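Task card 7
Instruction: Convert sequence to structure tokens.
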Amino acid sequence: MEKYYIALYKLGIKNELLLKAITEYDSDFIIHLFEGNTDIFLTNIEWLEYKNIFEDHSSLLNALEAAETILQINKQNEIHTALYATINYPHNLMSMDNPPAIVYYKGANPNRNFEKAIACIGTRKPTRFGFNAINYLIPQWVNEGFAIISGLAAGVDRLAHISCLTEGGKTIAVLAHGLDMIYPASNRKLAEKILLCNGTLLSEYPVGTKPDKFRFINRNRLIVGLSKVTVAMECERKSGSMHTIEFAQKQNCPIFCPDPGDTPKETQSGLKYILDNNIGSLIKNGLDYQNVVISAGYNIEQPSMNAKYIKEQYLKSLIASIEDDFIIKSIFEKIGLNYTSDCSCLINLNNYLLDFIQNTGYPIQTIIDLFIESIISTYTPSEKES
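Output:
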């Protein structure tokens, strides 16, 4: 029956009616729609506005052919289809208003081990503030068994996924396009790593759907729907992240953000707005990660991580976020180390730097700062200004 529901989507049937088609109508009714049986419109008034569509035989055939093509491409790319309320449909999404009738995913079943989840959102050009918030908070949530939900965009999304994976956690990347592509392309390797680490790529859009701007707003709605709590790590007042916050408000999803202070940068203006207007709760320091866990409806189960371990994980996450060997080499030069071919392996690079820190007493914070500066230096001039 997947083919018929996808065909209904291709015909432009509104999502609310698709949900009813899946949950309230039997398969014979749906099949009769595509067989041109227009008598059913006499007793099913809500379908009446689509009567002309179902009287157009060629449109029905085209929709069915398009659905078959989508399913064939899905099979070739190991993309799965999940219909609302079926066993592999994400449980958290079912409690949101007007959830997507159909979602597609690659990787782990999104209905298993992902119910305990936190959404991490923010700017594509984080400052040191955002780097710190992500890498001090996410490891502790992962340690409490939370999955991290984000959007695989540049900046905060990318760093959030990487921080989660570095700590051995599971993450879902929600995409604003079909799963036959990755946007931005610079995150293709990260997407592959998410799948290798038992994570999930998920979208409400079938293959062949391009990343048009309006789809990112819809994507943000799902990020909230998949999560128990939404955390804005660093964001501008006028940004896509604030759309996500609006969705969280409508869903009565708890909202948190770190303290931007009295004179925040532009990239933190959204956080100030959230706090000034009592939209969300303050994360004042690293220990406040516990308040987020409790607001999600869970108890604290693990002891707090020590500062030394968190900083080591922070450094590992920064190393994992850089794919340009030139940047790594320049950092090595600044701290007086030789970059060898052995260092090209991520595990070797992590161990090499941690051994160097332990043996020489070189401040780990200084190396962390160098990595952050190097990443920020890759922003365009307009991005650096904010």
